[in-house]
Design goal:
Helix content: 55-70%
Order of helices and strands: EEHHHHHHHHHH
Shape: elongated
Number of helices: 10
Radius of gyration: 28 Å
CATH architecture of one domain: Up-down Bundle
Strand content: under 5%
CATH class of one domain: Mainly Alpha
Distance between the termini: 108 Å
Number of strands: 2
Structural class: mainly alpha
Largest sheet: 2 strands, antiparallel
CATH superfamily of one domain: Rhomboid-like
């Protein structure tokens, strides 16, 4: 009695193609179009896709997705400051700046000034150049370690913290209540405070950052027209947020990140509301 010959193996994805090459993972035949070179042998495209879906994405020490390429958020903040500076030149310094600068006397009726002032700068080019240089030096590393959302929240809330400190420390009976403040210094000092904490968290030497913070903070007391109050508010806010982001337990990192950010924002808003309410 004759025995029928066995059917040749065919590719499951292309049944019209005979293939004697088999996937090292599932053992199924795979035609040349459906195989991917693996460290050992080959795998079919289905197994490669399943492995990628099951693999955990790479993350930084602080839980942010590992990203390559340009620091998008840092460049966006630099770009906004640059565009605003050009508008200050084109529209007119007093006209454009007076619309967005923060002064305690106007913050209760125009609350957007608490943040927009961080994207304004004085007519001295050195002001914006120094702030943008500091942002470019510190920003990309923090953005990479914290992730885009936490970094953006850190920057904006540090800017807000700087304006709130100006409000809390201004005297309503003096000219300081009506003096406008501009500049990204509060936000940048917040980044200084945060990276100080982050460096300690990952076990790196933070003494250089401490020296930079001390020198820049001291300048505010000795150089006229520099708001040391904004620097103080920014560094305190940034340090608190940096500690929350850096030392949150991995299992509760998302909850602490969102909850801590909201809590800091609420505290800053309440401080401003209470300050205006006591006048």
């Amino acid at each position: 009695m004759s025995v029928p010959a066995s059917q040749p193996p065919v590719c499951p994805r292309h049944p019209d193609r005979i293939s004697y090459v088999r996937c090292q993972r599932c053992g199924r035949p795979a035609c040349p179009e459906c195989v991917v070179q693996a460290p050992v042998g080959v795998q079919c495209v289905d197994c490669v896709r399943e492995a990628k879906a099951a693999a955990r994405p790479a993350r930084t020490v602080l839980g942010a997705p590992v990203r390559t390429g340009r620091p998008v958020v840092t460049l966006t903040f630099i770009g906004l400051c640059a565009v605003s500076y050009v508008l200050q030149l084109v529209v007119g310094w007093s006209d454009w700046t007076s619309r967005w600068a923060f002064a305690p006397a106007f913050g209760d009726v125009e609350p957007w000034r608490f943040l927009t002032s961080a994207f304004m700068h004085s007519d001295q080019p050195l002001h914006i150049l120094m702030n943008m240089y500091a942002l470019w030096i510190v920003g990309p590393d923090l953005e990479r370690m914290l992730g885009r959302l936490r970094f953006a929240a850190l920057y904006l809330l540090s800017a807000l913290g700087g304006s709130v400190a100006v409000l809390l420390l201004a005297d309503p009976t003096t000219v300081s209540w009506y003096t406008g403040t501009v500049g990204a210094s509060g936000a940048v000092f917040g980044l200084f405070g945060a990276i100080l904490v982050v460096l300690r968290r990952i076990g790196r030497d933070a003494r250089a950052v401490l020296v930079i913070i001390g020198l820049n903070f001291a300048i505010g007391f000795f150089v006229p027209n520099i708001s040391w109050q904004g620097h103080l508010g920014g560094v305190v806010t940034g340090t608190i947020l940096g500690a929350l982001y850096a030392f949150a337990p991995p299992s509760r990192r998302r909850v602490v990140g969102i909850g801590g950010t909201v809590l800091v924002a609420v505290v800053l808003v309440v401080c401003a509301v209470v300050r205006y309410g006591t006048l």
